[in-house]
Design goal:
418 residues, five-stranded mixed beta sheet, three-stranded antiparallel beta sheet, 14 strands, 41% helix
């Protein structure tokens, strides 16, 4: 998923008394009110949004206004908004950045609400919403990347079935290159969430504790191994080495029908179909294969949490919204409509109805993980992202060790910020 970065500073005044800033209204006092919810571009699918809005109005008499935000610069924008007297009532926050906002005192405690509506949520989903054992957000959705491929191009190359190992996948890419005029894979050089998944697969961490402080672990040979795997993937692509998957949107590239595969999130299929409806019949998915058939490639389990603004004046109404938005019915719709990974056992049936979700499930279960869930991590992702610079440097010929040395001082400086 495309994550921006939090600003280096937060307003200290948020730290006191934010949990007490509720509306004080009971269920009968919400009629005619409006709740403002910030969501990121591409996060809220149409049917889910329509259903949640209707159910919210029916239950509370209030209306909800979804304000769609762009990823570029969102963390700085959100930091400012949450410090104001009239912040958005509910906000979508990337699961790897939630800790930073919570530590700054910007979010309300939702522990009681979690007990009421999320007792059976998977711990892997919920841990990114916890800070020092307290529930400062609720998991909305999460998922991992799969191979989204063009079945027509693979058939033209004479390929049958789908690869079960990484070597088989590379062989398939090579066959497409030799037997068709299509690009085997579209993979820009800075899809760092895919690299993070590969790193998870090698058993490496991107940071480590040293002398009581968090510092970069980018120089670890295991990270270098992950980058070497990425380099092999990227060798089958003509995509720019200094761009990410959103520049341009890779789903739009895939929609043109000239690309054999992309490493994609499930929702990107809908984006491709929107750009070119004729591509729908040609889209297929499979789990990213690992070194052996028994274990999929490591994947970054990325997604978003919903949080309530600590300075918000409509906290009780915001909680009513979350009860509806995160109900079993609406969580199942998110899985079916966008291909997200189920966060509770009773959503497994919904996942089977979405090919992308079904393809994502094996890796999420066996090889899924996240970036470090520490408040300091958010600053590492700030623009310009030093990990992206590391990736481009390696793809352009620099050794992983030298590329790591070139950016580690910047990573360490960011990790040192409180």
């Amino acid at each position: 998923m495309k994550r921006g970065l939090i600003a280096a500073t937060m307003v200290a005044g948020m730290l006191v008394g934010v949990a007490a800033c509720g509306s004080g209204d009971g269920a009968d006092g919400f009629k005619g009110k409006k709740l403002t919810v910030w969501v990121m571009s591409g996060s809220n699918p149409a049917q889910w949004t329509e259903q949640v809005s209707a159910q919210f109005k029916k239950k509370t008499g209030a209306t909800v206004e979804f304000k769609v935000q762009q990823w570029n610069g969102i963390q700085q924008k959100l930091s400012t908004a949450l410090s104001e007297d009239t912040p958005p009532d509910v906000v979508e926050i990337g699961n790897t950045q939630t800790a930073a906002y919570a530590k700054a005192g910007a979010l309300a405690d939702l522990g009681d609400l979690k007990k009421e509506i999320g007792a059976d949520w998977n711990d892997a989903f919920n841990k990114a919403a916890l800070v020092d054992g307290k529930q400062y957000a609720l998991p909305w959705f999460a998922g991992n990347r799969v191979v989204m491929y063009n079945k027509k191009i693979w058939a033209q190359a004479g390929l049958k079935g789908t690869p079960r190992t990484r070597s088989e996948l590379f062989k398939a890419f090579d066959t497409i290159k030799k037997k068709t005029d299509a690009e085997p894979l579209y993979l820009p050089g800075q899809n760092w969430y895919f690299l993070d998944g590969l790193t998870i697969g090698t058993g490496a961490d991107l940071v480590k504790k040293q002398g009581g402080k968090w510092v970069s672990n980018l120089g670890d040979p295991k990270v270098a191994k992950a980058m070497d795997i990425y380099k092999t993937y990227q060798s089958f692509s003509t995509a720019p080495k200094n761009k990410d998957e959103a520049t341009p949107q890779q789903s739009e590239v895939f929609a043109k029908g000239k690309t054999g595969a992309v490493i994609a999130m499930g929702y990107e299929a809908a984006e491709a179909v929107k750009a070119n409806p004729d591509i729908k019949k040609d889209i297929g998915f499979f789990t990213i294969p690992g070194e052996t058939a028994g274990k999929p490639e490591g994947v970054f389990l990325g997604g978003s949490n919903f949080a309530v603004a600590g300075m918000g004046k409509n906290q009780e109404l915001a909680k009513e919204f979350l009860k509806i938005a995160l109900s079993k019915e609406n969580d199942a719709r998110m899985v079916r409509e966008s291909g997200w990974t189920p966060k509770s056992p009773d959503l497994a049936t919904a996942a089977k109805e979405n090919p992308a979700a079904a393809a994502a499930a094996p890796a999420a279960e066996k090889s899924g993980g996240t970036t470090p869930l520490i408040p300091q991590w958010a600053a590492v992702e700030n623009v310009p992202n030093p990990i992206k610079n590391y990736m481009t440097a390696v793809l352009n010929g620099k050794s992983p060790a030298d590329a790591a040395k070139a950016v580690e001082s910047e990573i360490n400086a960011r990790l040192a910020k409180e």
